[in-house]
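ok so I'm stuck.
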Amino acid sequence: MTTLSVVDETGSNDLLAQTMNEILHTATPYVEKATGLTLPDINVRLMDRGAAAKQFALFVAQRIQRDTSGIDLTSEDVQRAAVYPGQVEWVTYVRWRSTEALHITTDTGRPSTLIMPESLEHQKVTRDRRRLCALMVETLATQAQVAACQARFLPYRGWPVPPDPDDPIPHLSAGHAKWASEQVCPLLYPADPKRRRWHRRIARALLVGDADQRRRRQRYATEFVDQAIGAVGLTAFNRMWAQPEFLPTLEELRGPVLWIRRYEAVRFSV
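replied:
not stuck anymore, here's the structure
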């Protein structure tokens, strides 16, 4: 049985933590049914920006240590590995202003999610149950991914170089989580067709900056998940979390038919 934990580490968001916990309890069976994945014990931490940035930098430093253990590094690599967590902390503190959560794992692969209530309140997410539900469902789906792949490649690789924008895994993860929220949230909080939300889209665009390319890739990934699951089924699709050879390339994310053909070819060759 999945244990749910939402902890308010800010000291001033107990009601938000309680609301998130209620949504997580309600959404859990729906997410497991929609994704076909077994949810691990869920851990959500509400933190202010400074504390979250430090926690994320610590996670990055641990991943770097893990990934470089037993490897002979050049003096340049050693220096980069030493300063990179500090750079991550600064970038996280300065740029983490959207409603996105930060996902980290322990050394044993137990996932944890960091959420900044200040950002949610600023964008009025806390007053919109449907948007808060979407964030919670995406959190559940992402933690399920981490558990399914045993934290081998999600949510962060750890090597001290800037993340590769062409790496398909972050887009697949975000697309899969977004797909899960599109499946589950309408069942829990049906949208009111009379409500107009264009002003919120404009506000979010101003807050997160120019992220058109990222949103476009997330849309590609969400469409990929929908088409891939429709073609091969949940069980076959979820093989990719345990078997990296089935992970899609960036080209396959844009063209799901390419991945479906490759998957079928591998399946029938066995």
